[in-house]
Amino acid sequence: MSGSRPVNAISTIVGTYSGIRSDNFQAFMTQLGMPEQRLQLYDIKKWHVTVSYNKQTETWSMNIAASVPKNNLVFKLGQPFKETSLDAQECTSTITASPESNTTWNYRQTCGERVTDCKMEFTGEELHVTFKCGMTEAKQIYKKIK
Predict the structure, then answer these.
(1) CA-CA distance, 119 to 71, in Å (whole number)?
(2) What is the 8-class DSSP label of residue 44?
(3) How confident is the model at residue 5, as a pLDDT?
(4) In what order do the strands lie in the sheet with 136-144?
(5) Given this model, what pLDDT does residue 46 score?
(6) 3-state DSSP assignment of residue 29
(7) What pLDDT, on a 0 to 100 scale, did the predictor assign at position 2?
(8) How much of the chain is helix, strand and coil, in % rounded to 5?
(9) Contacts of 115 (CB under 8 A, 6+ apart)
(10) CATH topology (fold) of 7-141
(11) What average pLDDT score do residues 89-108 get?
(12) Strand (E) or helix (H) holding 114
């Protein structure tokens, strides 16, 4: 699938989001093997996600910043890319637009044998994220601040 999206989808997605709510995220990170002393870094109110789009290269950029861990992803929709996960694993990931909605992304991260799926729904005012690894699921909500 091409990285280009209709202008209304781009304007709905692009922006900076601030974390406002998290459900079961610490249990989710524990499932991934995150050491307990690092779990304190994952206070949702300290998280910011900035999404931008480069029309010339059809490349998306997503900067995920928590209090200490940071992750900057640069990708084209539908094309695999390498990244280091928030729990410091080397991974291959792919982000695709959902066939039902061009403002919903499906993000699959493969780190060795571990597969994590993430659904990102951009509403225009909020970003709703659902994470799943094995039987553990977590949810986060972010408010668009600019």
Answers:
(1) 17
(2) G
(3) 46
(4) 70-75, 59-65, 48-54, 15-23, 136-144, 126-133, 114-122, 104-111, 90-97, 81-84
(5) 76
(6) helix
(7) 46
(8) 15, 50, 35
(9) 108, 109, 133
(10) Lipocalin (2.40.128)
(11) 92
(12) strand 114-122
